[in-house]
Design brief:
This protein is of the alpha/beta class and 259 residues long. It has a domain of 181 residues: 2-enoyl-CoA Hydratase, Chain A, domain 1 (Alpha-Beta Complex), CATH 3.90.226.10. Helices cover 49% and strands 16% of the residues. A six-stranded mixed sheet has the order 1-2-3-5-7-10, sandwiched between helices. Strands 4-6-8-9 form a four-stranded mixed sheet. α1 packs parallel to α3. 42% of the residues are buried. The mean pLDDT is 94.
Length: 259
């Protein structure tokens, strides 16, 4: 039914598998639309008690598909893409069921931000989380500047966003960015174990808990994400963004001019 993801449901646990392994599950507009459709399906299905998201192949997701982004026609077109991905990730975060990111491999850029929109994160001990967008002249645009700033000590959030360098699994656990680090071969099994436990708990109490915790932890989140979207649209129009994306695709060091 879907071209960029796989979706299944068994014993009250729904599973999304990002399915562009040859592209390290990089995120394009089609994947965003398909993720949004699945989130709506899960919300409408009272039989689903928990949702697990993972990636096929060796990565969870390497982030946005830069080869597609570089062909966008200008800031308004880029703003449209950012709005689509933000609204989809917001809908996932607001889903009234518990969600688990089973991080089988690297989660960079939009892949990291997708994981941040989930309630719980289980990370492979060989993987890392990062938001490297600064290196192509932009910033995290799917809620990353806002969610990382709420989840991490401010200096660590700044380190990730300013330098664009990933955090290895032990540091992700140390700073509370993930709930558990396990051997790579145990990531999905552990996620299913947690999901089955959640599915057996009283669903109305779980939904109320999620609503209350989010309300307490995330004041001003949606306004911050809107500001993030506007900043990204501005940055897309800069010469540095153009140079950064070209350098990435050409596999060379970018030379930024501040224009």
């Amino acid at each position: 039914m879907y071209d960029t993801i796989e979706f299944s449901c068994e014993q009250a646990v729904a599973v999304i598998r990002l399915n562009r392994p040859a592209k390290l599950n990089s995120i394009n507009r089609e994947m965003v639309a398909e993720l949004g459709d699945v989130v709506r399906r899960v919300r409408a299905d009272e039989g689903v008690r928990a949702l697990v998201i993972t990636g096929n192949g060796r990565a969870f997701s390497a982030g946005a598909d830069i080869s597609r982004l570089v062909n966008l026609t200008g800031p308004p077109d880029f703003l449209g893409f950012i709005e689509e991905i933000q609204l989809t990730f917001n809908a996932l975060e607001d889903l009234n069921r518990p969600t688990i990111a089973a991080l089988n491999g690297i989660a960079f850029g939009g892949g990291c931000e997708l994981a941040l929109a989930c309630d719980l994160r289980i990370l492979s001990d060989a993987a890392a989380l990062g938001v490297p967008e600064i290196k192509i002249g932009v910033l995290p645009g799917a809620g990353g500047t806002q969610r990382l700033s709420r989840m991490l000590p401010q200096c660590i959030a700044k380190q990730m966003i300013y330098l664009g360098e990933p955090l290895a699994a032990p540091l992700c656990l140390q700073h509370g960015l993930v709930n558990s680090v396990v051997p790579a071969e145990r990531v999905l099994d552990t996620a299913f174990e947690w999901a089955r436990k959640l599915a057996a708990l009283p669903p109305l109490a779980i939904r109320s808990a999620k609503l209350l915790v989010h309300g307490a932890a995330n004041p001003g989140l949606k306004e911050g994400i809107e500001a993030e979207r506007q900043a990204l649209a501005y940055l897309f129009g800069t010469a540095d963004r153009s140079e950064g994306m070209r350098a990435f695709l050409e596999k060379r060091q970018a030379s930024f001019s501040g224009r």
